[in-house]
Amino acid sequence: MAEPTQTSSTFPNPPDFLWRQFTPDKTARFEEAKKAWEAANPDAASPQTVPQIPDLPNDLRHLQPPPEPADGTWRSLGGVWTLQDVLPNIEDWGMQRLEPAKPNGTHPTTTPSADDTNHDRALNLKRLAKSALLNFLEFVGVASIDPDGISEKTDDIETILINMHHGINEYRPHQARESLIQTMQNRLDQIRAETAAINAVTDKGKRVLEGLGSIGLPAGKEEEDSAPAKTDGLGAPIVDDADEVWEAAALWT
Question: Per the record, which residues fall in region Disordered (predicted)?
Fold first, then answer.
């Protein structure tokens, strides 16, 4: 009997076991079983790998993450994915390569030398862009004369655009590195600016404290301040100046 055809959908429904098996009780039981297995097998337990706990009860087997696919591929959302993300060659897509072939031993993401102008990606992208514009003009001319004969031009434009898309994808690793460098540089500049602001406030505080420490009172004023104040029988200060009398009176109001 032939095996039933496996159907796939772009937006498939979630599996039934997601809301039937993942209950708080079963989740707690699985965590206990996982901790017990890791304690009994410390060498096999590693945060970099997904351990497969043997002899799990049937009602807990869906809670264990599945192992990595043996062939390195899996299907998700209507597409086939691989564990190793590798940029395929244009020939693998069944398209013609328009840019010059890379020299032997050169990785697609390796930056070419300045002397190797034949393999300058920026120059090749400019050439492909000009070719796309020229072929579009030819496409418009052919469409105005013979609308049935435009298939050849559409194929040429498709080949050019796919080559441009492939050339841009080869820049992705370089773009990721440059984005990371820029992010780290911005963070470093921010930390340096904050450190400089903190140092400036610290220096200002030190100068203020040094200025306050260098202020001294006149000799006569120091003697007056150090002498005990004269008071009357009621404890009020005795002063001679009228202004000082009113100031002293204000202290008692």
Answer: 1-20, 97-118, 217-237
| Helix/strand/coil (H/E/C) assignment for every residue in the chain | CCCCCCCCCCCCCCCCHHHHCCCHHHHHHHHHHHHHHHHHCCCCCCCCCCCCCCCCCHHHHHHCCCCCCCCCEEEECCEEEECCCCCCCHHHHCCCCCCCCCCCCCCCCCCCCCCCHHHCHHHHHHHHHHHHHHHHHHHHHHHHHCHHHCHHHHHHHHHHHHHHHHHHHCCHHHHHHHHHHHHHHHHHHHHHHHHHHHHHHHHHHHHHHHHHHHCCCCHHHHHHHHCCCCECCCCCECCCCHHHHHHHHHHHC
| CB contact at 8 A, 90 and 128 | no
Placement of tokens 């204000």 in the chain? 250
What's the number of CA atoms in the CB half-sphere (13 Å) around residue 131?
19
pLDDT tens per residue, range 59-101:
788 788 777 777 778 787 777 788 777 777 788 777 888 877 6
| Residue carrying the six token digits 């050019």 | 160
Measured CA to CA, the distance from residue 47 to residue 27 in angstroms comes to 19
Strand partners, 237: 231
Distance separating the N- and C-terminal Cα atoms of the chain = 111
Q: Check residues 183 and 82 and name the one with the higher pLDDT.
A: 183
Q: Are the CB atoms for 67 and 51 separated by under 8 Å?
A: no
